[in-house]
Design goal:
Glutaredoxin; single chain; Immunoglobulin-like; 613 residues
Length: 613
């Protein structure tokens, strides 16, 4: 739906050039007087050009960019939570349902507090309005316009009366929408922030997770839980569901409540890892999971999984040392420790795949500087990620309660071992030869199908089970052949970023597509293998000069400089740069996107390029 919102960029309004955002919204703030230690209210008037509108706060749809007014604290003066006027319902051509907008003029009220020690006299506070301007056909990229507020700090009793200050912006409700736009004071609303914001505060301002929290805690935490749940569909998290089956499926029978408790402990292990990683990432400011995605760590994880898989083929039996069992309170306690540590490992393995959403949360946590908020937000995200594992762990453990388990269970254990071995091989290749990592799936289906269907001899005397094994083997082999047959052989060519060639392309009027990637990033290879190889994507991007930025060594000075320059929080990220050097920000790709969705971003970028030309 977001693409529909921006689709109008492909055409100019009635054949004329599209105006800049700074010419569409003008901002003025009335001077205010406040007593030291008191409160007052700042009225910010937004004047919108005739025929245009900006989204209300909150907007009609979650994907729309709300208008946000903010005030920087200075000299003992600080602004509170803005009170926004209700939006006017408007029916526009690009949306089937009515939207909530501000047009003509809107007044936002910001509570203002003065510290008891605030210096008396005149002060000037700086503020910004972040918005997206649209008309009935065209939506411009999000923009920011600065404004200033003249504040006079007086003695006790100066300014607004205590009763009025107490109720400012609350009891009276938001001001109504009125008529024509008011002219801003000198220097207010005339500029447009062409330079992109920097630092944590800037990232939070444009951060969808930050906007989620701005609407209230409960919906925000519910949204985080759902985001965590959705992360299970990312390329290197999804296989972990099979690992969970391997860990729990071959365990001895246990009472249902005990199995549920162990599964919960497994998920809490994942949550512990994510809370720890979140705090470390917030303190270090690095790409989330990048250190854990380094080749040595990837290889170590893969070798560990391969070693664990060998026990399921009967090469050895995992048994904690008797002295350890005695210290922790018996076999049950030993199992609990092992399950918790398994959850920690799964959290490590999944980390490199969840970059963009978690990077956004890291930036928000870093900006807030609240340890409890950091813990609860990451814990909520991790519990969403772990919810399917709780289910799988519980019911996979109950598999052993099936009546008269015999030789056929050996085949089930070999199946789990094959899954674990394949995932381990995948991570070893991600660290050693990333381009070959995605060959593991068809190879595992072919080899595993032949082995499990025709060579593995468990329960060979049972005719029905024997035919079931052969059916599974044939299906697996057919799946492997289908993957090989349907894998494209061509892809978009991305030479390494060359600053001279980059500048020359822009000067020649050619837009640029930048691909930020890393060898340790599994979704990056998914994007290369399945999206960039798609014929439609290759055709749609022919007009772009392509370059690739390798962030494998993410902590190098060069990588850090490029990440800050382009505000890249995670990989994969694909940026579309117009010939004037500005990015088409709404078209930015963060994470793996299927060809159909990626094509929508390319069309949006192409439309913005044509509109700017």
């Amino acid at each position: 739906m977001a693409v529909l919102l921006f689709a109008g960029l492909a055409s100019a309004q009635s054949g004329s050039a599209i105006p800049e955002a700074k010419d569409l919204v003008r901002v003025s703030a009335a001077p205010v007087t406040v007593a030291a230690g008191g409160r007052a209210a700042v009225r910010v008037t937004l004047g919108v050009r005739e025929g245009w509108h900006i989204n209300a706060n909150p907007p009609a749809q979650d994907y729309m960019i709300a208008t946000v007014v903010s005030l920087e604290a200075a000299d003992g003066l600080s602004g509170g939570k803005p009170v926004y006027p209700p939006g006017r319902q408007a029916k526009l051509s690009f949306e089937t349902s009515a939207l909530l907008v501000y047009d003509h003029e809107a007044v936002v009220t910001l509570p203002l507090s003065a510290a008891a020690g605030a210096a008396g006299g005149a002060h000037t506070l700086k503020g910004t309005i972040a918005f997206q301007a649209c008309n009935d056909q065209v939506c411009l990229p999000p923009a920011k316009v600065p404004f200033e507020v003249d504040v006079t700090v007086g003695g006790a009793g100066a300014g607004t009366s205590p009763a009025a200050r107490e109720s400012a912006g609350t009891a009276a409700g938001p001001p109504p929408l009125t008529g024509a736009a008011a002219a801003p004071p000198s220097g207010a609303g005339a500029g447009f922030a062409t330079a992109p914001p920097t630092g944590a505060a800037a990232a939070v301002a444009d951060n969808p997770i930050a906007r989620l929290f701005a609407r209230g805690s409960l919906p925000a935490y519910l949204g985080l839980f759902l985001i965590g749940l959705a992360l299970n569909l990312t390329p290197c998290v999804y296989p972990m569901l099979g690992v969970t089956l391997s860990i729990f499926g071959a365990r001895k029978a246990a009472p249902p409540l005990q199995v549920f408790g162990l599964a919960l402990l497994y998920v809490l292990g994942m949550a512990t890892m994510y809370c720890t990683l979140g705090v470390v990432a917030a303190l270090s400011g690095g790409l989330f999971g990048a250190a854990l995605g380094s080749p040595p760590v990837q290889i170590g994880i893969g070798v560990l999984l391969v070693a664990l898989s060998l026990s399921m083929f009967g090469l050895y039996t995992l048994q904690p040392p008797p002295w350890l069992l005695e210290r922790v309170g018996g076999a049950g306690a030993g199992n609990a420790v092992g399950i918790f540590l398994s959850g920690l490992v799964v959290g490590v393995i999944a980390a490199p795949c969840v970059g963009p959403p978690v990077a956004a949360l890291v930036l928000l946590v870093g900006a807030k500087g609240d340890v409890m908020f950091g813990f609860t937000s990451f814990f909520t995200l991790a519990m969403g990620l772990g919810a399917p594992y709780l289910l799988l762990g519980t019911f996979s453990g109950l598999l052993r309660r099936m009546p008269r388990s015999g030789e056929w269970m050996i085949w089930v254990e070999r199946l789990f071992g094959t899954i674990l071995l394949s995932v381990g091989a995948f991570y070893v290749l991600v660290g050693v030869a990333p381009k070959w990592a995605f060959s593991v799936m068809p190879a595992a289906l072919l080899a595993g199908g032949v082995y499990l269907g025709f060579l593995e001899r468990s329960a060979a005397t049972r005719a029905g089970f024997r035919w079931m094994k052969r059916g599974v083997g044939v299906a697996a082999v057919a799946g492997g052949i289908a993957i090989i047959a349907t894998t494209p052989t061509q892809s978009i060519t991305f030479p390494p970023l060359d600053e001279a060639a980059f500048a020359a392309a822009l000067e020649a009027g050619q837009p640029v597509m930048l691909d930020f990637t890393a060898n340790w990033c599994a979704p990056c290879h998914e994007l290369e293998r399945f999206t960039f190889s798609d014929r439609r994507v290759r055709e749609a991007t022919k007009g772009f000069r392509t370059f690739r930025v390798d962030l494998t060594h993410y902590d190098s000075a060069e990588s850090e400089g490029l990440r800050r320059r382009y505000q890249v929080a995670g990989v994969p990220s694909v940026l579309f740069i117009k010939p004037d050097g500005n990015e088409v920000r709404p078209a930015r790709v963060e994470g793996f996107l299927a060809p159909e969705v990626f094509l929508e971003r390319v069309r949006l970028a192409n439309g913005a390029v044509k509109a700017a030309g």
